[in-house]
Design brief:
Elements lengths: L5 H11 L2 H8 L6 H11 L2 E2 L14 E3 L2 E3 L3 E3 L12 H11 L4 E3 L7 H7 L4 E5 L5 H13 L5 E4 L9 H6 L28 H9 L7 H9 L4 E6 L2 H9 L4 E4 L13 H12 L4 E5 L5 H9 L4 E4 L1 H33 L12 E2 L4
Length: about 350
Amino acid sequence: MEPINVREYEAAARAKMDPIAWDYYAGGSDDQVTLRANSSAFERIRLRPRVLVDVSRCDTATTVLGTPVRCPVLIAPTGYHMLAHPEGECATARGAGEAGTLMAVSTMSTRRLEEIAAAASGPLWFQLYVYADRAVSAALVRRAEAAGYRALVLTVDAVRLGNREADERNHFTLPPGLRMANFEDVGLERMRESETGSGLVAHSSAVFDTALSWEALDWLRSLSRLPVIVKGIMTGEDAALAADHGVAGIIVSNHGGRQLDSVAPTIEVLPEVVTAVADRCEVYLDGGVRRGTDVLKALALGARAVLIGRPALWGLAADGAAGVARVLELLRTELERDMALAGRPTIASIDAALVTPPGR
């Protein structure tokens, strides 16, 4: 029986995936407090619907950095999609295009960024980690721009990896035949293995730039004309600094609960970030989005769009590109219905009056 909501896709994906790969996708850091809170925080926000509004036609279409999308649900950058499906990121990109939305492609993809661009039927952003050898990252930026990616997403919350105990226990590494495809040209495509813990931690500790600072934004903007989005902002102070450095967008993100545990869920941080940037850049959110009502609440609190990570991977594992498209369409259908029930027939009509934030 075909899943009829995102959580049912989660169960379908788990039944198909290798347990170690599943643990890598599903796990958070430490006691997974933030991982759980990302979803549960949405439940504490109450909706205030208006009635006797003409909702005979509700339109979920919007734009992100000027790019039209059918629905304000994008695909977040996540690594190693071939752990879920043999076609990996190429299938994810096709599913996103079929659903009329945008995919952010991870530096840590298991298909080359050029292959993904060739397979895609919709717009793409490219997510970047900064390596200690800046030339490695600079080469990725040039390749992404040449391949037609429309923006760069700089992840800033992972200069060291969080304590992901399932990966430590499983000695996680990429299985034979899988590689970090974007690094074949520089000999860094194989994940370092570790006999005492996670191979991913061993690899990232060896190559990531742990001295990353605000200077990196200026460096990145000097490399390319592409707009820069910063992913991993969790305070108003950092949001204001990012806007001061000329970013085009901010993704409020705690890395899906995989980095510092016990930070706030992203939906609780969102209003602070929106206030701090004061319309100087677009603001997006990822973390815990599982229902159309979650999307509705994020938009009401100031997000331009949301991004989904694990749910896209669940769709990919369950049914390839078609599963990705189906997950996105389920969320779009739920959002359209929820907009009607809330008396908000357009994205522009969704405002802060629709919600009672947590604690009120």
